Amino acid sequence: PLLFSPNGDHVLDTSRITVGLLAPTLVELEIGSRELFNSLTPGSITVDWDGRDSMGATVADGAHTVSIRASDPLGLLSPETLMLTVLVDGTVPEMIVNQPTGTHANGSQSVRLSFGDVHLTEFSTSIKRVADGVTIASIHGTQSTTSTLLELNNQAEGEYQLFAQARHGAGTRS
Q1: How far apart are CA 170 and CA 87, in angstroms?
Q2: Do 159 and 130 touch, CB atoms closer than 8 A?
Q3: Residue 33 pLDDT > 70, yes or no?
Q4: CA-CA distances (angstroms) from residue 132 to 139, 158, 163?
Q5: Which of 11, 76, 85, 123 could form a disulfide with 166 if both were Cys (CB 3.0 to 4.6 A apart)?
Q6: Torsion region of 75: left, alpha or beta (phi above 0 gives left; psi -120 to 50 gives alpha)
Q7: Do 13 and 6 touch, CB atoms closer than 8 A?
Q8: Are 172 and 93 in contact (CB under 8 A)?
Q9: Distance CA 126, CA 136 (A)
Q10: What is the C-alpha to C-alpha distance for residues 60 and 90, in angstroms, rounded to an integer?
Q11: 10 with 3: CB under 8 angstroms?
Q12: Rounded to whole angstroms, how far apart are CA atoms 119 and 140?
């Protein structure tokens, strides 16, 4: 994928690059200073990039340029170079409980949450009453937002559990 997260969670940890060739070609494939492939190949090649640089360290989040250079092994045709962009995003989506601001809330408050990430694909949150396990409110969405999940003024005093999760396009969850 063009967007991936090399963070070791086994979800979109690599980006697969496939080059289709019609004839034997010398192919050089690099990302930054790391050479991923440099060989004469008789046909298509597929290379998985693990998001690491030439020193073996995971690259920083952001855009990284893939350079693919194809050359005629006989030198009869001019070499061609193609540049692609791959996005690395290993950060978890941001989730903030805006209200209440502690472990306890009074009946005049509400439960408000914010979800944010430039690549956010989905979020869900719910509140369950501990006494009977009933879900009393839930919200699901696909865009960054600040939402009121529940107004507490109509709720009985007691213990409640808040559940929330978010995921972005590179598969990272919070």
Answers
A1: 9
A2: yes
A3: yes
A4: 20, 11, 16
A5: 123
A6: left
A7: yes
A8: yes
A9: 8
A10: 9
A11: no
A12: 16
